[in-house]
Give the backbone structure.
Amino acid sequence: MVTAKQTRKTPAVAINLALRAGASVLLSRVLDRGTTGKSSTEIADALDNRGVSLSLSVTRQLLSLTSTCLSEDVEDIFALLADIVRHPVVPETDLVTRKVQVLTSLQQDADNPAVRSVDALMAALYGDTHLYGRPITGTAASVAPPARHGANDEQVAG
C-alpha cells in the first residue's frame, strides 16, 4: 500500500510505502543498503542531495518505508523507493553487522520484563504460528547465520 499526501502550506509530499512483511526487523535494517543498480552511498546521496529522509519501521504485520520530499522530487523518490524494494542487494559485511545488531537487541529484549510479558501474552492469545503470536524482533534462530557447508568445513573437520 502506498500513501502519499501533499501539504498545502509547503510544497512537500509525505510518502508511506507499507509492505505486508510483518516482524521483519532484520530486513528493515538492510533494505536500504543497496540495489542492483545503486550502492548504499548512492542511495544516501540521492536522498541527501534533495534533503529527503528515509525511515524504515516494523510492526507485527507491516514493514513501512516513510519519506518526505518536495513535490517536485516525488517521481524520483517513488522510483528510488521502488528500486530499493524491488531490487535489494545487501553486501555481506552489512548483513553480518546488522545481524549482530539484531541479535544484541534480542538479548536486550530477553532481559526486559515488559517485552517478555507482551511476547508471552501475544503468544498465548494467537499461538506461535500466527503472525501476531511471534516476537516482533524475531528469534535468534531466524536471525542467526545459516550453517556453512562446503570445502572449508570438510577441511576443518578432516
